[in-house]
Design a protein that fits this description.
The protein folds into three domains: about 120 residues, Butyryl-Coa Dehydrogenase, subunit A, domain 1; about 110 residues, Beta Barrel (Butyryl-CoA Dehydrogenase, subunit A, domain 2), CATH 2.40.110.10; about 150 residues, Butyryl-CoA Dehydrogenase, subunit A, domain 3 (Up-down Bundle), CATH 1.20.140. β9 and β10 form a beta hairpin. The two termini are about 35 Å apart. The protein is globular. The chain has eleven helices and ten strands. About 50% of the residues lie in helices and about 15% in strands. With about 375 residues, the protein is of the alpha+beta class. It has a four-stranded mixed β-sheet, with helices on one face. Strands 2-3-7-6 form a four-stranded antiparallel β-sheet, with helices on one face. α7 runs parallel beside α9.
Length: about 375
């Protein structure tokens, strides 16, 4: 994985990250899945190791904009076998913190970015609403300017880390008549009066990450909490969407690689009709297809990752990576469950969790259908 363009420091990262996941994460997966939560202490431990900020500037405690190192962390974390844990940490460091880093003023960076990289404060990105998912321009949460403040009213839903987050980077309408050109990003602290977690949402998968509905009722937010310029929020969100989509694809490939290897071990041991399942040609051929397809997905992700590290525009590449990787991995995992037969459908076997967790990757960060629409614009105009 990534070996052909890794520097020596990246090999050190992978070793320390794998040790960390094996010690601090994997043994507790079942417990955190049952509790439907990833504990705050894990954020702190990951922050102490420097794993939450490798892609951020060194001056804020980051790793000098090292997206390759961050990708290795996503891969190693995916090996724990619970997509919810990866989702909880990634929603914080890969999705919610970047707007603060790249568009926040210095005071916001000191108050929120620094402790976020250290794992002392947890962030959430609040965009989706009950009536606005892929159609971001139709959000209704409003932010009305009142002298030196904004008065925020509205509802957000499906917000990862929404229950425990210390602050939410929130998409609001500052010009309700301007469509996507009237959207802004506000950083809203959880202690703001009128900001409440109205509901914790139960999900099919990602059990170890909390998901919430958030309500804002006459929240008075300081104007200096604006990220970037007013009415430029849509364009700011689009800039990080490429990394969000690429990170989802990278994690999906890594998690699928782990369960595919576990499935191959099972097929070698499990016997039917007097011989191992791995000896049946139908299974051998299907596995061959999956191994080749997974490697193709991995290389598509890595190609986009290298360009992203260089600072190149990767909208097309990250979109292709997410589309192909998330569709392909779901097909592979579905067959892995099938190979386990009845055992695959039992809760005690981890393949069922991967099967449930990975399914969300075709929805989050932009659905498969949206990915196809974006690509069609490149090739059809």
């Amino acid at each position: 994985m990534l070996s052909y363009f890794m520097e020596e420091k990246h090999k050190v990262y992978r070793h320390s990250m794998r040790e960390f996941v094996d010690k601090e994460v994997t043994p507790f997966v079942d417990e955190w899945e049952e509790q439907e939560d990833t504990p705050r202490e894990l954020y702190r431990k990951a922050g102490e190791m420097g794993f939450l900020g490798l892609k951020f500037p060194e001056e804020y405690g980051g790793g000098d904009n090292d997206y390759i190192g961050q990708a290795i962390w996503i891969e190693e974390l995916a090996r724990c076998g619970a997509g919810g844990i990866n989702a909880a940490l990634s929603a914080h460091s890969e999705i919610a913190l970047p707007p603060v880093c790249y568009f926040g003023n210095e005071e916001l960076k000191q108050r929120y970015l620094l402790p976020g990289i250290e794992g002392e404060k947890i962030a959430a990105l609040a965009i989706t609403e009950p009536d606005a998912g892929s159609d971001v321009a139709s959000i209704r949460t409003s932010a009305r300017r009142d002298q030196n403040n904004y008065i925020v009213n509205g509802t957000k839903t499906f917000i990862t880390n929404g229950v425990k987050a210390d602050f939410a980077v929130t998409a609001v309408k500052t010009n309700p008549d301007a469509g996507y050109q009237g959207i802004s990003l506000l950083l809203i602290d959880k202690d703001t009066p009128g900001f409440t977690v109205s509901k914790k949402i139960s999900k099919v998968g990602w059990h170890s990450s909390d998901t919430a509905e958030l309500s804002f009722e006459d929240c008075v937010v300081p104007a200096e909490n604006m990220l970037g310029e007013e009415n430029q929020g849509f364009f700011l969100m689009m800039q990080n969407f490429q990394w969000e989509r690429l990170s989802l694809a990278i994690g999906s490939v890594a998690g699928t690689d782990k369960i595919l290897q576990d499935t191959i071990s099972y097929l070698k041991e499990r016997k039917q009709f007097g011989r191992p399942l791995s000896s049946f040609q139908a299974i051998q051929h299907r596995l061959s297809d999956h191994v080749a397809a997974l490697e193709a997905a991995r290389q598509l992700c890595y190609s986009a990752l290298i360009k992203h590290q260089r600072g190149e525009e990767v909208t097309k590449e990250s979109t292709m990576a997410k589309l192909f990787a998330c569709e392909t991995t779901q097909q592979i995992i579905d067959d892995c469950l099938q190979f386990f037969g009845g055992y695959g459908y039992m809760m005690e076997y981890p393949v069922q969790r991967i099967w449930r967790d990975n399914r969300l990757n075709k929805i989050g960060g932009g659905t498969t259908q949206i990915m196809r629409q974006i690509l069609s614009a490149y090739y059809l105009g």
